[in-house]
Design goal:
Layout lengths: L22 E10 L2 E6 L11 E5 L6 E11 L4 E13 L8 E4 L2 E4 L22 E5 L4 E2 L8 E14 L6 E5 L6 E7 L15 E3 L4 E5 L10 H4 L1 E5 L9 E3 L8 E9 L15 E7 L11 E6 L4 E10 L2 E13 L5 E9 L5 E5 L15
Parallel strand pairs: 3-12
Antiparallel strand pairs: 1-2, 1-4, 4-8, 4-9, 5-6, 5-10, 7-8, 10-11, 10-12, 13-16, 14-15, 17-22, 18-19, 19-20, 20-21, 22-23
Amino acid sequence: MKVSRLFLFVLLFSVTLPSMASWDIYKSGLSLNGAYYDCLLNTAAPDFQNRYFGRFTSSGTLTLDFTEVLTYKNGASNVCSANLQYRVYRTSDAPPAFTTLSAPFCCNNGTSNACSGFVTCGPDVNNPGDQKWKGTPAFTNLIAALTLPGTYVIEVYYDATGDDAGGCSNTKYSSNGGVNYRAYFEYENNDSFTDLDFSTPTWTGDVANYTIIANSNTSGLTGSEAYRTHTIRLNATGTDTQSISTQIATWNAQQEWYFWLGRNGNGAAPQDFDANNQQAVYLYSSTSNLESGSCDGFRILIGSNATSYIRLQKITAGSATTIFTSSVGIPNGLTDYGVSFKVTRSQLGVWTIRTSTLPTNGLTTQSTPT
């Protein structure tokens, strides 16, 4: 299983002039998946800046519903047009050009509200120069064209044209002081096993010895059920090595994996992970046969006596070399528990492993979600 993410701030844009001018933008915001997010000023709406929208798969939607820009004008000044500029890109990729979403004139303050949105126009007759501009795309699913897993940035800014003397010759911006507004989401291209089979994507190896469990009864499950309750379970017994694998399309500069490991004793202590009973998740393998003597790759290994420490290992010609071992492990003798993992390999080859809180004692200990 794999997924990708990371954090990076990048790029610039124009400045927002102070609001002493005779015309300017005084509020901007947008709606995603039916919820409104504020970009300028502090309103009752949640802020768009630095917001995390969650993890999505290819079947998910993150829809840009509409955007709105509120402007003011005084004296002989005029506002002529308003736009949202937006782009979506992975943190490890070069940002593309901005896409323009025009926000046509919507209504004047002091008049009846001529169009829906988060902010209405009037009837505040004390500010008749205030205007609302609103743009509504037909249907813009921001993840529809994505193919590579990773952490993605939604970067936006707003512009409006106008003039102090009534023309349209100048442009002003709502751009977070020139660095633009950025929010984030994660996109994965892996197998969540919700289809209850090993065919999409295709898994090979000892598939007959594994079963997909829906609604796992491992004790104390909390958090995102979509990723916690469809799990694969090894059914084989005895002394042997069992493995399955699926092929990824490409090895990217930025890689990330997200997975959940659990153990269920069904009310009694199961066999502990120890030196003779181990579990490995291969992050990369040069061959689909994980038991091959020609296998090169990297893996996370759990299983050692007394305490099951978490190890990152490099595999060369089937032989493992430990890169590092966690300072805290999972003690033997526990009945039911689960641990979430997030493993990242940066563009510079730096590995980072994060887990949810590890279970430490008790017969039925469930770790907290990541």
